[in-house]
Amino acid sequence: MKYIRLKPGKEESLLRHHPWVFSGAVASLPKDLEEGDIVTVTDSKGNVLGTGHYQIGSIVVRILEFGADRIPEDFFLRRLENAFRLRQTLGLIREDNNCFRLVHGEGDFLPGLVIDIYGNTAVMQAHSPGMHFARHRIAEALTLLPEARIRNVYYKSETTLPYKAHLDPENEYLVGNYDGNIAIENGLQFNIDWLKGQKTGFFVDQRENRALLEKFSRGRKVLNMFCYTGGFSVYAIRGGALSVESVDSSLKAVALTDANIALNFPGDPRHTTHDEDAFKFLNEMEADKYDLIILDPPAFAKHRGAIKNGLIGYRKLNTKAFEKIKSGGIIFTFSCSQAITKEMFRLAVFSAAAKSGRKVRILHQLTQPADHPVDISHPEGEYLKGLVLYVE
Ligand code: SAH
After folding, report:
1. Distance CA 359, CA 331 (A)
2. What does the alpha-carbon distance between residue 285 and residue 273 come to, in Å, rounded to a whole number?
3. CA-CA 20 to 30 A from 14: which of 50, 115, 182, 353?
4. What is d(CA 142, CA 151) in angstroms, rounded to the nearest whole number?
């Protein structure tokens, strides 16, 4: 076993089960340590704090097992069983819902690993070299969860692993193969493109927020900005919207949205798509045309250094929507930037409201769903924020 010793007094956060060891806390690293190795971390006196995956960077170890100097043989199976039981408890595994997040990294005590389930296919992303090296064991453990009925495991880490590690991961099936790509969320069907789509192919994290939007849709003219797979649009149509327009600057996203509308509501004349830049669209659109607008952009601040510009982006985007929405309209506005706190986001939206001169009330404060749990020792796991606003 290889050991990393911490500097005196640097063990506090590990004793409270925060799973990250920062490079500044380390007193000595063994010479033969390689990225992805299993390593045991001790305090300055040599007492064992935990064991996890080593990697080069500001986070040097992600702890898998606290208070132990080894990882048990059946570690992945046990953690996956635990994760699966939680999703059963949450009532997410049903005939009319076979699409959910099974593993949300630190939130499921599996730092560096994300697994989304789409019917019989699990799509897995490694964010650390250690998880990359463990991929075959994880894939096998997934097939050993009897009630999950996972037949295929697709590994998709080409863009999630640190490129300096030179792991050159290939996106590939580790188990099974392609056998269809339609998943069901709350009774609605979606084509999931895990081969070419963003992330694991679908934003599972907006499920509850889409369901809430459905309840607001009746009789409204809906504008879904940054539509990607058209998730919000499909729910809005089911909710009885008068019309739904979906906007995305990616042609592929617009095609996916069209396909998902056609899958659920073939030939429905209420839906149209626009392959356009969101800011340009908002600038040029008529005022008072829409009375329900969804703003779900990509993360504007991907790291702490980008917070300031990110907040400017959110303010601009929301100002445009406030300026144009019909009186009595509703805005669903989101930020998925981890670096931006809910207070910062709310302040950016408040500044936008003030700038537009509209009177705005908060109806709901939204977050990520329960299949994206946050380990209470690891507040960094919280990332999705949303507000439902009523605009006079
Ligand atoms: N709301 C979606 C997820 C949005 S992901 C859902 O529920 O699934 C962000 C989307 O924004 C991507 O599809 C991306 O193509 C699109 N996008 C990024 N920049 C854009 C821009 N400037 N204008 C319009 N769309 C943009």
Report:
1. 13
2. 14
3. 115
4. 9
pTM reported for the whole predicted model: 0.96
Specify the ligand 1 atom closest to the Cα of 226.
Answer: 11
Kindly state if the Cβ of 250 falls inside 6 Å of ligand 1. yes
Burial class from Cβ neighbours inside 10 Å (0-12, 13-18, 19+) for residue 387 reads buried
- Strand pairing class (99-104; 113-118): antiparallel
Of 73, 80, 98, nearest in space to 141 by CA:
80
The closest of 201, 191, 188 to 237, measured between CA atoms, is 188
**Both tokens assigned to 386:** 């949303």
Question: From ligand 1's centre to the CA of 226, what distance in Å?
Answer: 3
Q: At what angle do helices 342-356 and 307-324 cross, to 10 degrees?
A: 40
Strands 99-104 and 59-66: unpaired
Q: Is 300 in the pocket of ligand 1 (CB under 6 A)?
A: no
Q: Using an 8 Å Cβ cutoff, are 171 and 158 in contact? A: yes
pLDDT tens by residue, 51-87:
999 999 999 999 999 999 999 999 999 999 999 999 9
